[in-house]
Amino acid sequence: MKFTLEHVIGLETLTSIEAFSHIDSDLITGILDEAGRFASEILAPLSRDGDTIGSIRDDDGSVTTPPGYREAYERYVAAGWPAAAFPTDIGGGGLPWAIGLAVQEMATSADLAFSLCPMLTYGTNDLLMEHGSEEQRGTYLERLVTGEWAGTMVLTEPQAGSDLGAILTKATPADDGTWRVKGTKIFITWGEHDLTDNIVHLVLARTPDGPPGTKGISCFIVPKFLVNDDGSQGDRNDVTCVSLEHKLGIHASPTAVLAFGESGDGAVGYLVGEENRGMRYMFTMMNNARIAVGLQGLGLTERSYQQAAAYALERRQGHTMDGDRSEKAPIVRHPDVRRMLMLMRANVEAMRGVLYRNAMAIDLAHHHPDETVRNQEADLAAILTPISKAWASDLGVELTSLGLQVHGGAGYIEETGAAQLWRDSRIAPIYEGTNGIQAQDLAMRKLPLDGGNAMRRLLEAIAADAASLEGDLKPIGEQLTAAVEATAEVAIALGGWLAEGRFDDVLTGATPFLKMMGDTLGGWMLARGASAAAAKPDGYDEAFLADRLASASFYAEHVLPMVPAHRSSALAGAESVFEIEEARLA
Ligand SMILES: Cc1cc2nc3c(=O)[nH]c(=O)nc-3n(C[C@H](O)[C@H](O)[C@H](O)COP(=O)(O)OP(=O)(O)OC[C@H]3O[C@@H](n4cnc5c(N)ncnc54)[C@H](O)[C@@H]3O)c2cc1C
Fold this sequence. Notes:
Distance between the termini: 47 Å
Helix content: 40-55%
Bound molecules: flavin-adenine dinucleotide
Structural class: alpha+beta
Number of helices: 20
């Protein structure tokens, strides 16, 4: 993680600016070591009970989390982890998001279900920091940032999933300037629980005069308990947990059906910002949330890899073709097992590079003194975010499945824990905007950013780095060049189709294009890591640096050549997709 921060994404671009000048290498080591200890000693042991016992709704609508969760959450808050990457003036630790993401990665690896509670709260914080009134920030923000209270994102309704324009929950103005919110929301992560005294729901609802569709949606704070003027806990608000969903994974994360205003005029709500701008506000915080969901693919793959590698070193089956036949070989010696492990390992390094770079782009877009850099980094973050979310979460499913495969039959048996990681990973391509919606965002909105120049700048930067690789690294450079050229060809073609209005053709190619972008960016990050390793920086032992070179070579041989192969699918257009008559599909 430290190597990725310092030598792959180039954290010094960030630490050389005023806002983060207090961060040095020792501080990063200290933070990562401490976070690692907390994640492995306190959080990781929770995840098995979290899976088998899960969170349970009691008859009175309250929710009890699995054993150990409350204590772990208390310690998490006491150690200051939730606040680490928020500004100091609101109770935060003042770290850049790029380092905060590394800390978050460890919590995600250790127990995804647990990590979702702080993750959702980060979303609430971001939205209130940006759009809350001074009074709202005073009442809620610091207690959310420190983790004393938890936040939720309350968007989905049965008829309104990807299409939030279909939301029906209503908010009507009350005489005292507050609002009354009435409606039913589904699938609300950590919508009810016993980890904190209060839960601050951010709810999307429609006001009486709002226009139809997404333009008529407003955002409301609806706390579980109202807050008195002196900050003390007030009356229980009319928000009820009607049920919890039974899910494939993340059983400890209570996914709630919430009824607002079930027993009266409505739950008391407070309008955030202006009426009808709720969707826009949600989008401002979605960048961080989307990266955090991509991080779930990375975090679960890392844990799955650690477990699979340890198993492969112990489990003995058969003989290697050219080795000693007098005793059974550990399965790690079979080329196919080693190939699976390397796919996991190299992709972990690739994902980590892309996601941390994405987070750093957000930091630089906010804090860099030069306006041009701020704008370019904002564009880069806009392009990378749907890729971080969709590419990494898809890889998470694929690679935790490989982790299970390394275990053979034992992987399919729940006791090993390999199956849980795979089950847990399956949600990440779905929530926070399905991966299909991310691909649409990349092709329709991000590709044309700044007249296509933002994409061009990114692909040119990759091509330039690829061309600069020489000596032992030349083969990596050649594969990366081929990948970026194929990706650029598709980007230009899809951009042209967009201009011609061939939307179905663009949308058919969007997912393969996103995959090409993700794998190419991953190759870029590994190439940067290989260059840095070849220069033998201080503080890393020879073996570690040699391993980085090996994983970059592996990725260049086994992953990058697949990038040009996606070109035909990305450029095939919609015709064959729609060839079979709709009525004949079922
Ligand atoms: C465990 C869990 C936790 C969740 N947590 C939260 C939460 O905390 N807060 C919250 O508000 N919601 C939450 N959700 C809801 C989640 O965000 C939605 O499930 C998701 O946005 C997809 O909506 P949907 O389920 O209605 O699927 P649909 O929108 O019906 O999509 C079905 C399929 O159609 C595709 N599709 C739909 N529209 C388009 C389109 N325009 N173009 C291309 N493809 C399209 C989708 O990609 C998908 O493959 C959660 C869901 C789950 C399962």
